[in-house]
Design a protein that fits this description.
mainly beta; about 0% helix; about 20% strand; globular; 12 strands; about 190 residues; two-stranded parallel ribbon
């Protein structure tokens, strides 16, 4: 765990950290940081205070942690975020407020988690999102209009889930979509 004495030079733009937890305020003075790699740590929970002070962050990799929950508007302190990798965690819920203030996000990787459904418009604020990867989740249900506001989405990966049916309303509004991978699901005849 990084303790209160942890301080970085303000001109560091890229930081790769291996540690056992992320406490609120650990990275608070790192406003110039644009790329933060936290893959493979033991982080289990994040909230809106965890990433405070990272206003210029463009890329955040939190893959392969033990993340079980993201509380509230977790990423609101990162308004310039363009790339977010939350793959290979234990996440189960996608709340609408989770992505408050990150409307510049272009790539969102959520594969290999424990999502069981894609609720109504969880990504509604992500107007610039072009790649959404939900591969290898336990998703059985995609709610009507779940992706409706993602007009710039070019790639949607739902491969390897447990989806039994998908209809036109489930993917309504995806006018820019070029790749839709729905292979290896449980569609019935």
């Amino acid at each position: 765990m990084i303790d209160a004495t942890f301080t970085l030079h303000r001109l560091i733009l890229y930081l790769y950290l291996v540690f056992k937890g992320l406490e609120p305020g650990n990275l608070e003075r790192q406003n110039d940081l644009i790329d933060l790699e936290l893959e493979g740590n033991l982080i289990s929970t994040l909230d809106e205070k965890s990433l405070r002070g990272l206003g210029n962050l463009k890329k955040l990799n939190l893959a392969s942690n033990n993340l079980e929950s993201l509380i509230g508007p977790t990423f609101q302190s990162c308004p310039k975020l363009q790339y977010l990798d939350l793959s290979n965690n234990r996440l189960t819920d996608l709340s609408f407020e989770l992505f408050n203030n990150v409307d510049r996000l272009q790539v969102l990787i959520l594969k290999d988690n424990s999502f069981k459904e894609v609720p109504y418009k969880p990504f509604g604020q992500l107007r610039h999102l072009s790649i959404l990867d939900l591969e290898d989740n336990s998703i059985e249900d995609v709610r009507n209009k779940a992706f409706e506001d993602l007009t710039r989405l070019t790639s949607l990966n739902l491969k390897g889930c447990k989806i039994r049916s998908l209809n036109a309303y489930d993917v309504k509004g995806l006018d820019s979509l070029k790749i839709l991978d729905i292979g290896n699901n449980q569609f019935s005849g």
